[in-house]
Amino acid sequence: MGLIALACKPKKENAAIVNLIQKLGGIIICKTNTPAGLLFTETTNMLWGRTLNPYSRKYLNVGGSSGGEGAIAALKGSCFGIGSDIGGSVKHPAALNNAYSIKPSVGRIPTYGTQSGQPGQESIKTVYGILSHYLDNMTYSFKAFIEAEPYKDIDAGCIPLSYRKYTLEKHQPLNIAFLDRDGLTSVTPPLIRGLNIVKRKLKAAGHNVFDWNDAYFKSMTDCMYPMYGANGLTTLKELLKQSGEPIDSRMQKSIASAKVMPVSRLWNYQIQRTKIVQQYLNYWNTGSSNGRLDAIIIPTSAFPACLLNKVPPQPYTSMWNALDYSASTLPVTRCNVKIDRPVKKDSYLSDVDRDVHDTYRENLIKFEGGPVSVQVVCNRLEEEKCLAITKYISSLLD
């Protein structure tokens, strides 16, 4: 977890995911870096320092919290990697490092027995996802995990759902929605170009493509973020107190905003979350004249790859954790500042949105070459479908 208090204290038992990998014959070669406490989307801590983005070590962010896994994927240093994800911690670093990833719904991949700074926080459950430079490696490892039936002897929290191969019907057009905002920010020009590349390819292949609204993003964000720190981050504070380590400014913001919450208030937030989950399912099924959605294409961030110390909040990714939807990341292109010129906006979604576009305009050259990726979002427990659509879109981009 990137905390001094936990350093050099190996556990007596492996986590469930480690047991599963070893049962399948996998060789674990290393652990990779994370932010201190896994609390923010920049991978830096007092133990190991900052992990740098292989595509621009000087300017661009590696993302987080699984930023070390994103970097090693970019460098082709592993067949695949595992990262925890409670709000985008797999999807975000995968996208910033031009890698593929899959964030499953709760219960498909084992999570029991791993260290957490928020044990007992189950309002938005942590899942484990897979990152890799190679799509086939990611698909293969996910299939192997599910076919091992981990619910039987690895993790009681896994669900007894078999691997279901998904085949795209040749003559059945997909219904694919495109979203360029997350209720807080709108995407910068490289991401607009990336979305349009995918949209044109799908449309030319005969599929139904259309713009989607960011409905429910703000209402979900308003109840989701307070739940993350409902105990006032007590466990994390105790770990920091044990070591006396300096507190990173980004962590300090999270600690300062986290307040111990009465159970009645937490339950009200959970009621609101569950209501939005039901409303979004209805929106998924009825929001398009073409019928039920097959997938939503949306970036992981407003930026191609965020600058160091300039990562905005990420409803682009955290929304799908709150809904418990399956989501992958898919590399599309790279930022080209000669093409991706800043655009003049007449209005902004928020002050954060204004800052995003000001940052892009004022630091344009620093974004050169930054990976441009998108998420493929499918409904709950539709990982096989999500991977199949991801592979199909990737083939269209080749």
TrEMBL record:
Keyword Hydrolase: yes
Key words of the record: Hydrolase
Listed InterPro entries: Amidase_dom, AS_sf
Every Amidase domain range: 1-387
UniProt keyword Hydrolase present: yes
Molecular function via GO: hydrolase activity
Gene3D superfamilies: Amidase signature (AS) domain
Family: Belongs to the amidase family.
Listed name of the protein: Amidase domain-containing protein
